[in-house]
What we know:
12 strands; Immunoglobulin-like; elongated
Amino acid sequence: MDIGSVLGVTGAETTTTAGTGTLGRDEFLELLITQLEMQDPLNPMENDELIAQLAQFSSLEQMQNMNRSLQEGLEMDLLVGQLLNNTMSTTLIGRNVRVASSEFRLSESGPATLAYRLPADADSLTASVFDEEGRLVATIHDLEKETGDHTFEWDGRDTNGDRVSPGMYSFQVLAADASGGTLEAEELLVGHVDGVRYRDGAAWLVIGNHESLMSDVFEVNDEG
Length: 224
């Protein structure tokens, strides 16, 4: 009688016949000891068979230890990464940043500073501003069309020239090249980092009334 035949499996991976999961080290050793105790004295287990089963036990133990070490290493790497990210985020307080976002908050007075990035020179370019309900509020023309990052201001007035209410808005930049092909312009938020909030293990930069993940930041300017 051997453990493999009792459990109905072969190889280093040993599972219960009931299909309840991988057999643990203690269970494997207990079955091996029971097998040795119950063997026929007149027909004892051959040395080769015993060595093979001990090797199977050793292989199982090594795999369990390796899996445990890998899991502990991954958890430690994640913890260290979060700690570094959260620590570095505090160094951005008081700085001006650019983040990948199309949402922004319009204050009661003053314009909103917006930005965009072009992958190539554009032949035509417009920026549309929408309110929280998705309604078109204003359309802005005469923007820079060269490749790269650009900044512009929206004065907070609608297409009729009336000042709109303060609150959350969004904008979209539509660009096309000389052949009429669409250019994938990227909307950016430019703002001052007022603080940091920690939520779900992540650091969120407070930019006005907007929150952005640190991973969305791609440019940091001098202190404002």
